[in-house]
Amino acid sequence: MGHLIPLLELAKVFADLHHNFHVTCIIPTLGFPSKAMTTVLEALPTSIDHVFLPPVNSEDLHTLHPGLQISRTITLSLPSLRDVLKSLVATNRLAALVVDLFASEALEVAKELRVSPYVFAATSAMVLSLLLHMPKLDETVQGEFRELPEPLKLPMVHTNSRQRSYFKLNGMSGDLSHVTLPTLGFPESHELSPPHQHRPCLSSSSELGGPPHSTPCCHYSVGCFVVDPFAIEALEVAKEFGVSPYIFEAVSATVLSLLLHMPKLDETVQGEFRELPEPLKLPGWPIPIQGRDLIEPLQDRKRKNYKALEVLAGDGSPPIFPIGPITQTGSSTNHVDESGCISWLDKQPSGSVLFVSFGSGGTLSFDQLTELALGLELSGQRFIWVVRSPNNGPADAAYVSNQSHQDPLAFLPNGFVERIEGQGLVVPSWAPQPRILSHGSTGGFLTHCGWNSTLESIVSGIPLIAWPLFAEQRMNAVLLTEDLKVALRPKANEKGLIEREEIAKVIKDLMASEEGALSELASKLASN
Ligand code: UDP
């Protein structure tokens, strides 16, 4: 869902706001689609429709790692995908096929049907870099990767300093037209690119991958090519075809600023960054809380001197155009209240409820789940908690299904559900998050700091408790607590466990600040 949701929101931007595209979402499924998925899809505007491909036989796949389940599902779905695409080609002017990174095999079908192929990669750059190099590693490394005596050295990750992977971003900056930056709070500035005087295109008669055709309008007109930072190498192809290249940085301004400064830091800092005696000081940090201060000068394209850009990235960097936030809103989801969250919230006092959720697939260990339950109870605060079954393995184990295989409520402490009646509501696996965050009774959000959740909370003016689990969530947590100062962060003990007393304290501090600084700052951010 963390991939599908931003992709659908991007589809809405294309369909409604800018280009009057009609969008068809083609969705392969493993078993039956989750309830969460059908709810989001059914709430789409009429300009976006969806087709579920016939479910592949899930029996054999459930034992596989989540990533393998997804890729196998795609492979098995290719024949039915081909049928659907063929019918679209026959009845419509099919402009392009945009696929998630996990579905890149589907590009073969696009090639076959001569449809312009695009990949939307909603992953971190490090992960994609590693994935792209896997086949080579597989050939060259003997035995298990974990047994390697030295850190891996990848072409995009030159040394054991992971930050070096961004070297390439800067190295290519001379070739790039634009970097797009989703930023906080400028819905009116949704704009993907400056108008194109010249629209290079692929002729319908040329093979994909063949030479570009210069006729400025035809069936397969390609205006621009947008890549995730991990797919930056793909810009070579854009260059080859004379198509405008863009990088879509799905990160905060603080993170972007850090990435752009990496090469310089890499030159000047000796040894590992983690060994630095002082916190890093970058020009322009902390990023001004009034996003407008940062972005307005960027939007004045006549100005040669992009002041705010200098702050962000120094001289010689490409222009930055804000296109975000790309978020779901409370009204964009279905109005049926199956979980009962909205009717429960309707009965609670204004700003009194803490919403607790770890995204579409984040899970806690059994011990941590217990501490969280008892901490919520101890705080005495009202809450809605989306509970997922515990897992002592990876925290992203529930990513594929977004659902727990066992009843998650069965893992809660004895008598917990009865004791918290009236104080809290526990919801298994999934809740209508954007509607909850935009409800007047919600006053705080305990979150894993996924970027979608972060933006959804901010646009609703809700202060947060930052509880990052994996990936870039820790950087988002630092942004929220230290730069924007709209979040509190609980401390873990020496075993990495956040104890019930600490949880209760942070919750009380957050909710007690309802009329206070945190909440005020959160509303200020939202109105900006
Ligand atoms: N979400 C939801 N209900 C839930 C859990 C998640 O609607 O119970 C949505 C949430 O609103 C967000 C997305 O799923 O849009 C999760 O994306 P995010 O980037 O926050 O985290 P990820 O799931 O990718 O870790």
UniProtKB/TrEMBL annotation:
- InterPro entries according to UniProt: UDP_glucos_trans, UDP_glycos_trans_CS
The record's top EC class is: transferase
Keyword Transferase in record: yes
Which keywords label this protein?
Answer: Glycosyltransferase, Transferase
Q: Which Pfam families match?
A: UDPGT
> Which GO terms of the molecular function aspect are on file?
UDP-glycosyltransferase activity
Report the EC number(s), separated by commas if there are several. 2.4.1.-
Region (Disordered) residue ranges read 189-208
Record PANTHER family: GLYCOSYLTRANSFERASE, UDP-GLYCOSYLTRANSFERASE 72B1
The record's similarity note reads: Belongs to the UDP-glycosyltransferase family.
Q: What is the name of the protein in this document?
A: Glycosyltransferase
The organism encoding this protein is Morella rubra (Chinese bayberry)
At the highest ranks, the source species' classification is:
Eukaryota, Viridiplantae, Streptophyta, Embryophyta, Tracheophyta
